[in-house]
C-alpha cells in the first residue's frame, strides 16, 4: 500500500546524506516558505491569481518567464561558485565536495543555465517586446502561450524539488548514454533530468510555433518582413529553429526514458543498442540550440546599438541575411560536437569546414554594428556598455570557436577546460549580456520606471570582470590539458589559475547580488525614475510609441507602418503621438486557468514518473488533457475593453505626455528623464 | 503616425459562414481561422521531425536483431495491407466529410462521413493491436532487441497519433452536438482533417520502409 501511494519515494530520499545537500534543500524550502508567507501577509493571493497566474497577456507572461529565469540564474551561479571553490582547493586533495556531488553540480548548473535560465529569459524578453514591436495586441495563441510558460515552469520546479528529494543526475547537461542508462545510473537522478527537459522542450516547441505564426500573421499593416525590427527577425529565426530542433531532443530523451522504464534497447550496450543515435539526435538539437541562445542577443544588440547611436541600423538587409544564413547553417554542423567519436576523417573535414563558414555571417554582423556606431551620437547607456563588451569578447570566443572547428585541434583539447572556456565565452557575452541589456532596455517600458543607472554600471563591471577572470585562465589550463568535469587534479601548474578563476566567480556572485540591490533601490525610488511618457531612450520602434507601462491592449489603434524605424520617422516628421480621431471597442483574450492547471499537472506528471507513483501519473495526465479539452468547450474566451475606457486611458496618457518636459540627450540618465528625449541637433 | 481601419482581415480560407453573421464578425473569424490553420501546419512540420527521427533510428537499427526474431518471422504482411487499406479509405472519407462541410454545409452528411472515418480508424487500430499481440506472442517484444525497440516505437507512435485522432473525433462530435457546425467547429474539423491525412502519409512510409522492405530483405 505504501509502495502504491508513494512509489520509490521514501525517507532515504531526504537530503540528510551530506551537510551541503541539507543546507541547499533548506534554502529552497525556506525560500518557498518566505514567498508563500509574504504573499499571504500582503494579501496578494487574489491579485496573483487573477492578474498573473491566469493572465494570457503576452507582457505579463513575458515578465513571469523572466522571473523564473532570475530565480534559476541565482541557483546556477551559486552552484558555479561552489564548483570553482572546490577546484581551487582540489590540487592533490579531495577538497570539500565528493566526486558524485561535484558531478551533480555541473549537471544541474549546465542544465539549469541552458534550459531554465537562458531559454526562459530570451522567451520572456521576446514575449514582452516582440508583439509590441510588430504593432500587435498579443501573440497568435495567447492561451497556448500560457501553457508554454506552465510547462517550462513545471520543469524548473522539478529541478528545484530535486534538491530536496533524491539526488540529481550525474550525467552532465548532455546526459550521454550508456552512462545514463539504468545499469550505470540506477537512481532517480536521470529521470528528474529527463522529465524536466521533456517538459521544457515541449513548452519551447509550442513557443516556437506561436512566435512564428505571430510574426507571419500579426504584423501591423504596412510592416513587410523587411520593415520588421531586426529583433523580430531574430525571433522568426529562433522560432523556426525551435520548431525543427526541439523535437529531436524530445525524441532522444523519451527514447532514453523508454530504455530506462520499459527495458528497451535504443542506447544500451547490450542487445543492439546504439548510443551514437543519442549523440546525433542530441546535437541535432544541441547545435541549433546554441543559435537559439545567441540570435536573441544579436537582435537585442541590433536594437540597442541603433538606439543609443541615434542612427539607423547600418546594413539592415545584410544583417537580415546574415541572421537567416546562420539559422540555416546551424543545422549542418552538429557533428563538430563529437569529432572524436570515431567517424571518418573526411566526414570530420566536411563538418569542420561547415562550422568555419558560420564565422562569415557572424563577422558581417559585427562590422554592421561597428558601422552603425561609426559617427553616431553614442550614449554609453548600460545596454551600450554590454554591447561594446560583447563585440570584443565575442570575437575572442568566435576565434577559439574557429580553432575548435579544426578537427585536428579539437582532438587535442576536446573534453578539456579549453572547451568550457570557449562556450562560456560565447554564452556569457553572447547570451547573458544580451539578455541583461534587454532587461535594462525594456524594463522602463514594462514597469514604467528606469533601473538605477549607477548599480547598472556596477553590475556590468562585475559581470565583465568576473567573466574575464573566471574564464580566461581556463583557456590556458585547458590548452595545458586539464580535463573538464574534474573534481580533483594532480598538476601543480593548474593551481594558480584556479585561484584566479575563483576570484572571477566571486565577482560574478557580486554581480548577482548587485542585481538584487539594483532592483530593490529602483523599486524604492521608482517615483524619481518614472517614465510614464514612454520613450526614455529616444527609441525607434513601435513599442516606444505607447505609454510605459503599456495599456493592456497595447495600441489604442493599430498603427500603419511604412518604413523601418517607423516611430522614429514619425517623430522626425512630427506625426508621432497623434490622438486617433475615433476610439473603438477592443476585444482581448480573457484570462484562463488552463496554463496554470497544465503547469501543476505537468509538474506532477514528471514528479510521479520520476518516483514511479503510477496512480499519480494517470491522474495528472487526465487533469492535463482534461483541462485542455474542457477549454475547447468554452466559447466565452474574449473580453471587450469598451471604447470609453480606451479613450480615457489614452487621453490621460496623451495629456501627461504633453506636460512632460523633454530631456536633453546628455541628461538622459538623470532623474530629469521622464520618458521624453529631445532630439539632438 | 497613421492608424489602420480596424477589422480588415486577410481573405478566405474555405470556411462556410452563415449569411446572417455581421460582416465584422465574419472577417474576424476568418482571420482567426487562418491563423489557427497556419499554426497547425507548422505544428505538423514539427511533428514530422519526430517521425523522421524515429524513421532514422529505425533505419540505423535494421540489423540490430541481437539474435532475436526479425521482420520475416514477426510481420504479417496481409494484416499490414488491410491496415493500409483501412487508413487510406479513412483518409478518403475524411476528405469527403470536409468537402461536404465546406461546399454543402449539410451537417448530416458531414457527420456521417466523419463517423465512417472514425470507424475505419478503429478498424485500423484493432488490426494494429492484433499485430502487436501476435508479435509479442512470437517473442517480438520491444525489450528483445534494438531493432524491436525501434519498430515498436515507430509503429506505436503512429498508433498513438491515430488514437489521438479518434478521441479528437469523438470530442468534435460532442462539440457539434453543443454548438452545431459553426465556424469555430469547422476550423477544428479542418485541423483534424489535416492531422488525419498527415498520419496517412506517415503510414505509407511505415508500410513501405518497415513492412515491405522488412519482408523482402
Ligand atoms: C556565471 C558565471 C559562470 C560560472 C562561474 C560558470 C562555471 C562553470 C563551471 C565551473 C563549470 C564546470 C566546468 C567543468 O566541467 O569542470 C561549468 C559548466 C557549464 N556551464 Fe557554466 N558558469 C557560468 C555561467 C554559465 C552560463 C551563463 C551558462 C549558459 C547559459 C553556462 C553553461 C554551462 C554548461 C552548459 C556547462 C557544462 C555542464 C556539463 O559539463 O555538463 N554557465 N560552468
Ligand atoms: Cu555546435
UniProtKB/TrEMBL annotation, chain A:
Residue intervals passing through the bilayer = 16-42, 63-85, 105-126, 147-168, 192-216, 228-258, 278-301, 313-335, 347-364, 385-405, 417-442, 454-477, 497-520, 588-607, 613-630
Choose one Gene Ontology CC annotation of this protein and give it: plasma membrane
Q: What is its main location?
A: membrane
Return the protein name. Answer: Cytochrome bo(3) ubiquinol oxidase subunit 1
**Per UniProt, which keywords does this protein have?**
Cell membrane, Copper, Electron transport, Heme, Iron, Membrane, Metal-binding, Respiratory chain, Transmembrane, Transmembrane helix, Transport
On the tree of life, the source organism's domain of life is: Bacteria
Originating species: Swaminathania salitolerans
Q: Where does the record place a coiled coil?
A: none
The record's InterPro entries line, in alphabetical order, gives: Cyt_c_oxase-like_su1_dom (IPR023616), Cyt_c_oxase-like_su1_sf (IPR036927), Cyt_C_Oxase_1 (IPR000883), Cyt_c_Oxase_su1_BS (IPR023615)
| Compartment list | Cell membrane
Q: Which residues form the Cytochrome oxidase subunit I profile domain?
A: 43-562
The Swiss-Prot or TrEMBL record annotates one GO molecular function as:
cytochrome-c oxidase activity
What family name appears in the similarity comment? Belongs to the heme-copper respiratory oxidase family.
UniProtKB/TrEMBL annotation, chain B:
Listed PROSITE patterns: COX3 (PS50253)
* Membrane spanning residue stretches: 36-59, 79-99, 111-130, 150-173, 194-216
Q: What UniProt keywords are attached to this protein's entry?
A: Cell membrane, Membrane, Oxidoreductase, Transmembrane, Transmembrane helix
One GO BP annotation is:
aerobic electron transport chain
An annotated Gene Ontology molecular function: cytochrome-c oxidase activity
**Which compartment or compartments is the protein found in?**
Cell membrane
Could you name the domain of life of the organism this protein comes from?
A: Bacteria
For the region Disordered, give the residue spans: 1-26
Major place of residence: membrane
**Topology with regard to the membrane?**
Multi-pass membrane protein
Positions of the Heme-copper oxidase subunit III family profile domain: 38-215
Return the similarity comment. Belongs to the cytochrome c oxidase subunit 3 family.
Q: Which PANTHER family match?
A: CYTOCHROME BO(3) UBIQUINOL OXIDASE SUBUNIT 3 (PTHR11403:SF2), CYTOCHROME C OXIDASE SUBUNIT III (PTHR11403)
Q: What protein name is recorded for this chain?
A: Cytochrome bo(3) ubiquinol oxidase subunit 3
Quick one: which gene encodes this? cyoC
Amino acid at each position: 500500500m505504501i509502495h502504491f501511494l508513494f512509489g520509490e519515494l521514501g525517507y532515504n530520499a531526504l537530503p540528510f546524506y551530506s551537510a551541503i545537500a541539507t543546507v541547499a534543500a533548506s534554502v529552497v524550502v525556506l525560500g518557498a516558505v518566505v514567498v508563500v508567507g509574504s504573499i499571504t501577509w500582503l494579501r496578494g493571493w487574489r491579485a496573483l491569481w487573477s492578474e498573473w497566474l491566469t493572465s494570457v497577456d503576452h507582457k505579463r507572461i513575458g515578465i513571469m518567464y523572466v522571473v523564473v529565469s532570475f530565480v534559476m540564474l541565482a541557483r546556477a551561479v551559486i552552484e558555479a561558485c561552489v564548483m570553482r571553490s572546490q577546484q581551487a582547493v582540489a590540487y592533490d586533495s579531495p577538497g570539500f565536495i565528493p566526486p558524485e556531488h561535484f558531478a551533480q553540480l555541473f549537471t544541474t548548473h549546465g542544465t539549469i543555465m541552458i534550459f531554465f535560465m537562458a531559454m526562459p529569459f530570451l522567451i520572456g524578453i521576446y514575449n514582452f517586446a516582440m508583439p509590441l514591436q510588430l504593432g500587435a495586441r498579443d501573440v497568435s495563441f495567447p492561451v497556448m502561450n500560457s501553457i508554454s510558460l506552465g510547462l517550462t515552469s513545471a520543469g524548473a520546479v522539478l529541478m528545484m524539488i530535486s534538491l530536496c528529494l533524491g539526488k540529481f543526475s550525474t550525467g552532465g547537461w548532455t546526459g550521454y548514454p550508456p552512462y545514463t542508462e539504468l545499469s550505470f545510473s540506477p537512481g532517480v537522478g536521470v529521470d528528474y533530468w529527463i522529465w524536466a527537459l521533456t517538459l521544457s522542450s515541449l513548452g519551447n516547441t509550442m513557443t516556437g510555433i506561436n512566435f512564428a505564426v505571430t510574426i507571419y500573421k500579426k504584423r501591423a499593416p504596412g510592416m513587410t518582413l523587411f520593415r520588421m525590427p531586426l529583433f523580430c527577425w531574430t525571433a522568426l529565426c529562433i522560432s523556426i529553429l525551435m520548431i525543427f530542433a526541439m523535437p529531436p531532443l524530445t525524441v532522444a530523451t523519451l527514447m532514453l526514458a523508454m530504455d530506462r522504464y520499459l527495458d528497451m534497447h535504443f542506447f544500451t550496450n547490450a542487445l543492439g543498442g546504439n548510443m551514437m543515435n543519442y549523440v546525433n539526435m542530441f546535437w541535432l538539437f544541441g547545435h541549433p540550440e546554441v543559435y537559439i541562445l545567441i540570435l536573441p542577443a544579436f537582435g537585442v544588440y541590433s536594437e540597442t546599438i541603433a538606439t543609443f547611436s541615434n542612427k539607423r541600423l547600418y546594413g539592415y538587409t545584410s544583417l537580415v541575411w546574415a541572421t537567416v544564413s546562420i539559422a540555416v547553417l546551424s543545422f549542418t554542423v552538429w557533428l563538430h560536437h563529437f569529432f572524436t567519436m570515431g567517424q571518418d576523417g573526411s566526414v570530420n573535414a566536411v563538418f569542420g569546414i561547415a562550422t568555419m563558414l558560420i564565422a562569415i555571417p557572424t563577422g558581417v554582423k559585427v562590422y554592421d554594428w561597428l558601422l552603425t556606431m561609426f559617427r553616431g551620437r553614442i550614449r554609453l547607456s548600460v545596454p551600450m556598455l554590454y554591447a561594446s563588451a560583447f563585440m570584443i569578447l565575442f570575437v575572442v570566443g568566435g576565434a577559439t570557436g574557429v580553432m575548435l572547428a579544426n578537427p585536428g585541434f579539437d582532438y587535442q583539447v576536446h573534453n578539456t577546460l579549453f572547451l568550457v572556456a570557449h562556450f562560456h565565452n560565447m554564452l556569457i557575452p553572447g547570451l547573458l549580456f544580451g539578455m541583461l541589456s534587454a532587461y535594462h532596455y525594456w524594463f522602463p517600458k514594462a514597469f514604467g520606471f528606469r533601473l538605477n543607472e549607477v548599480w547598472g554600471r556596477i553590475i556590468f563591471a562585475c559581470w565583465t570582470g568576473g567573466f574575464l577572470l573566471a574564464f580566461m585562465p581556463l583557456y590556458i589550463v585547458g590548452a595545458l590539458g586539464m580535463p573538464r568535469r574534474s573534481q580533483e587534479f594532480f598538476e601543480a601548474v593548474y593551481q594558480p589559475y584556479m585561484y584566479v578563476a575563483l576570484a572571477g566567480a566571486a565577482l560574478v556572485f557580486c554581480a548577482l547580488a548587485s542585481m538584487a540591490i539594483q532592483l530593490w533601490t529602483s523599486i524604492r525610488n521608482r517615483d524619481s525614475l518614472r517614465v510614464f511618457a514612454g520613450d526614455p531612450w529616444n527609441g525607434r520602434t513601435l513599442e516606444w510609441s505607447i505609454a510605459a507601462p503599456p495599456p493592456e491592449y497595447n495600441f489604442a489603434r493599430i498603427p500603419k507602418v511604412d518604413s523601418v524605424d517607423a516611430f522614429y520617422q514619425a517623430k522626425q516628421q512630427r506625426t508621432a503621438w497623434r490622438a486617433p480621431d475615433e476610439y473603438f471597442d477592443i476585444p482581448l483574450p480573457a484570462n484562463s486557468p488552463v496554463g496554470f492547471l497544465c503547469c501543476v499537472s505537468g509538474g506532477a506528471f514528471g514528479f510521479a514518473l520520476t518516483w514511479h507513483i503510477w496512480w499519480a501519473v494517470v491522474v495528472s495526465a487526465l487533469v492535463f488533457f482534461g483541462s485542455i479539452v474542457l477549454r475547447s468547450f468554452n466559447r466565452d474566451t474574449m473580453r471587450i475593453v469598451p471604447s470609453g475606457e480606451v479613450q480615457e486611458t489614452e487621453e490621460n496618457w496623451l495629456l501627461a505626455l504633453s506636460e512632460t518636459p523633454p530631456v536633453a540627450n546628455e541628461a538622459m540618465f538623470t532623474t530629469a528623464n521622464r520618458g521624453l528625449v529631445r532630439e539632438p541637433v | 503616425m497613421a492608424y489602420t481601419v480596424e477589422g480588415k482581415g486577410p481573405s478566405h480560407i474555405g470556411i462556410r459562414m452563415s449569411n446572417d453573421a455581421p460582416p465584422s464578425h465574419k472577417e474576424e473569424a476568418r482571420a482567426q481561422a487562418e491563423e489557427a490553420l497556419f499554426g497547425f501546419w507548422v505544428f505538423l512540420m514539427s511533428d514530422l521531425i519526430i517521425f523522421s527521427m524515429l524513421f532514422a533510428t529505425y533505419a540505423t537499427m535494421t540489423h540490430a536483431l541481437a539474435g532475436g526474431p526479425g521482420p520475416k518471422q514477426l510481420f504479417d504482411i496481409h494484416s499490414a495491407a488491410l491496415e493500409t487499406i483501412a487508413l487510406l479509405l479513412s483518409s478518403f472519407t475524411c476528405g469527403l466529410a470536409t468537402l461536404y462541410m465546406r461546399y454543402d454545409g449539410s451537417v448530416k452528411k458531414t457527420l456521417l462521413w466523419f463517423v465512417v472515418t472514425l470507424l475505419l480508424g478503429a478498424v485500423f487500430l484493432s488490426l494494429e493491436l492484433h499485430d502487436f499481440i501476435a508479435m509479442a506472442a512470437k517473442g517480438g517484444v520491444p525489450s528483445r532487441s534494438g531493432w524491436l525497440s525501434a519498430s515498436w516505437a515507430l509503429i506505436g507512435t503512429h498508433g498513438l497519433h491515430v488514437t489521438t485522432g479518434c478521441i479528437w473525433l469523438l470530442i468534435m462530435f460532442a462539440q457539434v452536438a453543443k454548438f452545431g457546425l459553426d465556424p469555430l467547429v469547422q476550423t477544428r474539423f479542418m485541423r483534424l482533417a489535416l492531422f488525419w491525412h498527415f498520419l496517412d502519409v506517415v503510414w505509407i512510409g511505415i508500410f513501405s520502409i518497415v513492412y515491405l522492405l522488412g519482408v523482402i530483405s
